[in-house]
Every structure is written in C-alpha cells, then in structure tokens.
Amino acid sequence: MSNGNPDGRDQVDWQGWLQRWDAQQAGYVPEREERFRVMLDVLEALLPGEFVALDLACGPGAISQRLLERFPRARCVAIDFDPVMLALGQGAVGSFDGRLRWIDADLAEQGWVQSAGEPGVDAVLSTTALHWLSAPHLVALYRELGALVRPGGVFLNGDNMDFSPDLATVQRLMHDARDRDWSDESFAERGIETAEQWWDALGREPSMAPLIAERTRRLASKERPASSPTFDLHVGALRNAGFREVATVWQSGTDRVLLAVR
Fold first, then answer.
1. Which CATH number does the domain 9-261 belong to among 3.30.200.20, 3.40.50.150, 3.90.70.10, 3.40.50.1460?
2. 158: which strand partners?
3. Residue 2: pLDDT above 60?
C-alpha cells in the first residue's frame, strides 16, 4: 500500500483525494479543525516536547499529520482496519521521515495492542471513530488503554457522544439538529460532497478496485451497533480502566473532546 506499486496506485492523486476527504468530513463536523486544535493544545500543556502517541482508527491520518507537524520531536503510530484509509494515508501523508508508522489492525480484536509495537505510550487520540464500537468492545478497549498509557499520559477522544437516556428531550433536540445538518439537502446547499459521493467517486478509480474489494470483505463481518455508547458510558469505562481524571474539555452539542488523564 505505497506509492511504488505496479498496480497503478502510483498514479493516484493521493493529495487530491485527501483534500476531498477533509472537505466532506468538515461537512459533518464544521468545527473539525477547532476540535483538532483543542486536542493538540492539551498535549502541549500536559506533555514534554518528545512523546509517543497512538492515533486510533486513524483513517487517512488527520490527527497524525497535524500532531507531527506541530510537535517535531514526537512519534506517532496510526492504527486502522480499513485498507483504503491506510493506503490513502500512506500515499498522501507518508512516514514523516520515520516518525509515523501505519498499522493494519482491528481495535475490536485481541492483539491490536501488540501490533502497535510500543510497550507504553504518552498519548492516545481518536476522532469521529469510536462510535462504531459496541459498548463491550469500547469497555475492553479502554481497559487496554489503561494498561498502555503511562502515568501522567492522556487519552483524547473527539466524537459525537450522546447524552444519557434520562435526558431524552435534550437528546432529541441534538439528533434533530444533526439530522438536518447531515441531510443530502444541507450538503447540496453548502456545496459540499457527502461521504457517499466521495466513496462513489473513489470507486471509479480503477487502481483502487482491489483495496475497495478488500474493504468490503472486511466490513461484511462488522455490524454497527444499534446505538452508540453514551457520554456517561465513556466516562465510567475510562474511570474503571484507571484514568484518574475524565472530563469534557470542548463541546458543541453532542460533539465533544473528552480528556482522560492517566
């Protein structure tokens, strides 16, 4: 999954596809860059300049790229299950002169920690990804992070985390607003490509066919949970995993940055 392959992928406009990816993601998360800024500000405030980070469910490496640009002495390990996203990240972002490693691993399966190849890390970050995990898988993931993150290290998750069930009115208001913002009509009015349109366009790249086929095969065994873990579940699971402080450090509706300090 690198730029020199004889299957035509060396002709793919990786940078162009990454720019289109970032644009459509910002359609779903208008304050995406602000969310990233807050997460990196936390790292600057709490960690030394030289540290090791994990980018969980990294996609094409949005966090990794921004983190390594801001912290020139840091290293990062980017982990994802999606071969298309990993290829896009490797093609467009690269290795940052060896400071960035890409790992193909499934966070819902045992053994992903070992595949990262790090005995301990100072920071773990994730955005717009962990809502795909079921509650039991999320609890297990946080338990593994509690053993992996060094004392004083941090976990940062930027994602939509729903309010608890006893706040049904608030939750309905948030869901209604999100449904309006994420509708095809809203994207068309704003002149933004939807995720479905992005994937359809990528599927017309002949050299991407094998990767897309492998992605389809992998996702066939996955089932998205009926409901995403609530904010309260995230907090409780992180505390039970050994994180001593857990709190929201930025929020817009259900979109939050959750910080946990080990």
1. 3.40.50.150
2. 127, 257
3. no
Q: What is the dihedral of CA 39, 75, 56, 197, to 10 degrees?
A: 80
What angle is formed at CA 228 by the lines to CA 34 and CA 213, rounded to 5 degrees?
85
The rounded percent of the chain whose pLDDT value lies above 90 is 90
Q: Are 79 and 55 in contact (CB under 8 A)?
A: yes
Bigger pLDDT: 110 vs 65: 65
For residue 225, pLDDT beyond 90: no
Q: Cα separation of 148 and 127, whole Å?
A: 19
Q: How are beta strands 255-261 and 245-252 bridged, if at all? A: antiparallel
Integer Cα distance of 78 and 193 in angstroms = 26
Domain residue ranges in the chain? 9-261
**Cα 86 from Cα 79, distance rounded (Å):** 8
Structure token digits, residue 229: 């873990």
Distance CA 229, CA 134 (A): 7
Q: How many residues does the chain have?
A: 262
Q: Which two tokens stand for residue 24?
A: 């459509």
Give per-residue pLDDT as tens, 141-170: 999 999 999 999 999 999 999 998 899 999
Q: What is the DSSP letter of 234?
A: H
**From CA 211, how far away is CA 113, in angstroms rounded?**
24
- Residues with Cβ within 8 Å of 132's Cβ and at least 6 positions away in sequence, in order, are 57, 222, 224, 225
Going by pLDDT thresholds of 50, 70 and 90, the confidence category of residue 108 is very high
Kindly list the distances between the CA atom of residue 199 and the CA atoms of 24, 54, 58, 92, 208, in Å, as whole numbers in the listed order.
11, 26, 17, 17, 11
